[in-house]
Design goal:
This protein is an alpha/beta fold. Helix content is 39%, strand content 15%. The N and C termini lie far apart (54 Å).
Length: 249
């Protein structure tokens, strides 16, 4: 056994890792979430269904090919996952869940034809304050499974916008207009055909659409797919009740 592995095992024994959802001690092989909590996250399974409610958000706004999220944002469990990722200085949660998301979507052919991954960038001031960009860690986890390269600096966030959390639909759109710009030193964007955009939570799709528009400014014929950890639970209940979806919401 390698010394580093032995030290890790000793540290885990003395200071056992706990599930970020239920608080139970993690067993060997478990990371961040126990098997039960990970299994009980309310999956969207959008990668198995196209068209789906998430894709509809982008219809008529960008050249969207496919979209999926790991789980519906519903209940205390998913709230704990997202807050651990964004606010508890625990970025490796993002890398791990990015791997889970990619592994679950891989066999469906979701990644077919995708040439690069672009995570939503944080403004430099916010990234320094938080210490990391959670979307970058999600992208790294997806890249680890798929082998698709991450373009972490292909697009820059020019404006340090206020949080979207408490804004209504119209305010969200206004808040993210023209906040991104493609990096002029990155020539790959102008020749790429299909890019995967990554966000932690997709609600109205406004942030990702603004990001896509910045990329379209240098490559108007590019195609996009979208992945996120979470998607609003109201879409789940609407689909279960056979209610039509508003593609502009």
């Amino acid at each position: 056994m390698k010394l580093s592995s032995l030290c890790t095992d000793i540290l885990h024994f003395l200071l056992p890792y706990r599930c970020i959802v239920c608080g139970q001690r993690l067993s060997a092989g478990e990371r961040h979430l126990c098997v039960n909590c990970l299994a009980n996250l309310p999956r969207t399974r959008f990668h198995l269904s196209s068209p789906n409610a998430m894709e509809q958000l982008f219809w008529g706004r960008i050249n969207i090919d496919r979209a999926t999220a790991l789980f519906y944002y519903q209940g205390e469990e998913t709230h704990k996952v997202l807050h651990n990722l964004k606010y508890y200085d625990n970025p490796d949660v993002g890398r791990h869940l990015g791997m889970v998301l990619a592994e679950e979507a891989l066999s469906s052919g979701f990644f077919s034809g995708i040439e690069a991954i672009v995570p939503v960038p944080l403004h430099s001031r916010k990234e320094r304050k938080r210490g990391y960009n959670q979307c970058m860690y999600l992208a790294e986890g997806i890249s680890h499974v798929t082998g698709i390269k991450v373009m972490g600096r292909a697009v820059e966030r020019k404006v340090n916008t206020k949080t979207q959390t408490h804004l209504n639909k119209d305010e969200r759109w206004e808040n993210v207009q023209n906040i991104f710009a493609a990096n002029p030193s990155d020539t790959f964007l102008s020749t790429c055909h299909h890019i995967l955009l990554i966000d932690d939570v997709v609600t109205t799709g406004s942030t990702l659409i603004s990001l896509a528009h910045a990329i379209e400014a240098v490559n108007p014929d590019i195609q996009f797919s979208v992945m996120s950890l979470a998607f609003p639970s109201e879409y789940r209940f609407a689909m279960e009740n056979n209610e039509p979806q508003d593609s502009t919401s």
